Amino acid sequence: MEFLDLKTQQKRIRKPLEKRIHKILDHGAYIMGPEVFELEEKLADYCGVKHAISCSSGTDALLIPLMAWGIGPGDAVFTTPFTYVATAEVISILGATPVFVDVYESTYNIDCEKLETEINKVINEGKLKPKAIIPVDLFGLPARYRLINKIAKKYNLKVIEDAAQSFGGSIRNKKVGTFGDVAATSFYPAKPLGCYGDGGAIFTNDEDLAEECKAIRIHGTKKDKYNSEMIGLNGRLDSIQAAVLLEKLSVFNDELEMRNEVNSYYRKHLNNAQHHPEQYESAHALFSITLGSESKRDKLIDRLNNAKIPSVIYYKFPIHLMEGFRYLGYKKKDLSISETLSANIVSLPMHPYLKTRDIDKIIKCIKGN
After folding, report:
1. What are φ and ψ of residue 365, in 5° steps?
2. d(Cα 319, Cα 327) in Å, to the nearest integer?
3. For a tag site, which of 3, 51, 277, 351 has the least CB within 10 Å?
């Protein structure tokens, strides 16, 4: 049994993908070739935004808008500690300060009431200037953007939707990628829409921001590639990765439906998974359950291993307790829900091609039968 089955998917798209790759070998534009611009157009159409800017990774997709806004030392950026480290990493790289906000126990996404509390705390302390919020759409489920955007407007903050896991999701039929000032997604191979290497994309309706992001991803150049007009980075997407994404995008909606069926089947038998509010559609990047304690989780993982069923812990360490972020001064019990989730959560196999018989085997193992 596979935790993530890319082989079956590859068989499905292999012939048209090989045709695209042969075309790239013929035209020789290996970086930022025509496939990249075709992909950007199709991504923008899919989400319903004016601009989709491809880049070299989901991390760069978060970093580049922060750079475009000039965020740096003395600035506070609010985000969650229960996610992959890249979300906080990009804030620290620029010299700004990540301010962590705990999550809802039910959805695992940023708690909006606690978010406003933390913003006011930073304002009252007067040491940092609040600049932006990076909510995370964890495991594919969009965060509460109506409330988040309301808070952002109240305090004049920018919002970057961290949609690294949620491309294809929606709220009230409005697609992920359209919330906040800008959105960032990842095309890491394990994502619902993933390439065969690293890749990412930025989504926005802001014309000026889009132009800045396009320049930053190519060493800060706009007109002449040998004359940098601002500090940038090497954040370009390879043409072959764009070709992979174009073919995967052609089957993406079908795969989302299949993921939803897998999710629904799991939920018929398990009631300890992430809560999905009404009118919120997840991309089902992962299916995770909580076990109530670390010892119960460890015992389940042992049973799964013995049955040759793969599992992964996302995320074993909340970011605020990681060694690399010790300088921020957080300690245990500061963000108790995130810490509890890290101690007892486990992710089960989730992909479009997961068979019912395999899910039955997983459920049987979980229930100890």
Report:
1. -65, -40
2. 12
3. 277
- Do strands 97-100 and 174-175 pair parallel, antiparallel, or not at all (unpaired)? unpaired
pLDDT digits (tens, 9 = 90+) for 48-89: 999 999 999 999 999 999 999 999 999 999 999 999 999 999
- Those residues whose C-beta lies under 8 Å from the C-beta of residue 190, and which sit 6 or more positions away, are 4, 285
Q: Which CATH number characterizes residue 142's domain?
A: 3.40.640.10
Residue 245 in domain:
yes
Q: Both 129 and 238 in a single domain? A: yes
- Tokens (6 digits) for 300: 């389940």
Confidence of residue 19 (pLDDT cuts 50, 70, 90): very high
356: CATH = 3.90.1150.10
Distance CA 62, CA 82 (A): 17
Number of structural domains in the chain: 2
The conformational region for residue 273 under phi > 0 = left, psi -120 to 50 = alpha, else beta, is: beta
Same domain for 129 and 40, yes or no, is yes
- Of all residues in the chain, what percent carry a pLDDT higher than 90? 98
Domain limits for position 121: 6-101+108-250
The confidence band for 227, taking pLDDT boundaries of 50, 70 and 90, is very high
Arithmetic mean of pLDDT, 16-44: 97
Among 142, 145, 138, CA closest to 281: 142
Helices (H), 223-335: 239-250, 252-269, 294-306
How do beta strands 170-171 and 182-186 pair?
Answer: unpaired
| Residue 67 lies inside a defined structural domain of this protein | yes
Residue 150 and residue 88 share a domain: yes
Checking if the pLDDT of 368 tops 90, the result is: no
Q: Are 212 and 332 in a shared domain?
A: no
